[in-house]
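User: Can you help me understand a structure? I only have the sequence.
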Amino acid sequence: MDQTKMRILSAAAKLFDIYGYKGTSVRHIAEEAQVNSALISYHFQGKQGVLETLIASYFDTLFRLVEEQEIEYRDAPPYERLEQIIGLYLRFQCEHAPITRLIQRELSVESMLAREVLTLYISRWKHGLSRVIEMGITSSEFQPVSTDRIVLAVISQMTYPFLQAQMVRQVYDLEPYSEEFALWQQASIMRYLRACLLDA
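Assistant: Let's start by predicting it. Here is the structure, written out as tokens:
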């Protein structure tokens, strides 16, 4: 991707995080990126195209990393595979905090874009976690459980702090974008999974 497109995407990510998608104009993005606003239409067909590119790039990168990790840990026990994949998701969210927060905001609003993201990306995210849990159930390494309910609880724990970052900071005095918080989240989620999947 050329430097102009990268500058536009970087500027948009910053402004969308601060002002929200609706509160950011093409002119604001162009000023932040120090480009002519016509280039945004040329490269992305407008603000909506910038948003869609940011989201697609985020998930394409995430799923590429997940696939690489799955190859590395394909012979590991299911619980270890779950621990690795959850750790990867949490680190990725922290490293891409503005886009993570933007995506969670957009998913909280009923829209065509939200439905597309749910269909294309969130369903795939859910499937990746579900598959590892179902493998553990099939091999009798995990207790028989409702996979959907377990995955819903896990994904909720992972995403809520990004949707409510200000509340997490002000009410709980925690920094949801920090590595320390991600490690605490991972340990907490794994305790929950151990109780649900391993403890009799």
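Now, to help you interpret it: The two ends are 51 Å apart (CA to CA). The chain is about 80% helix and 0% strand. Let me know which part you'd like to focus on.
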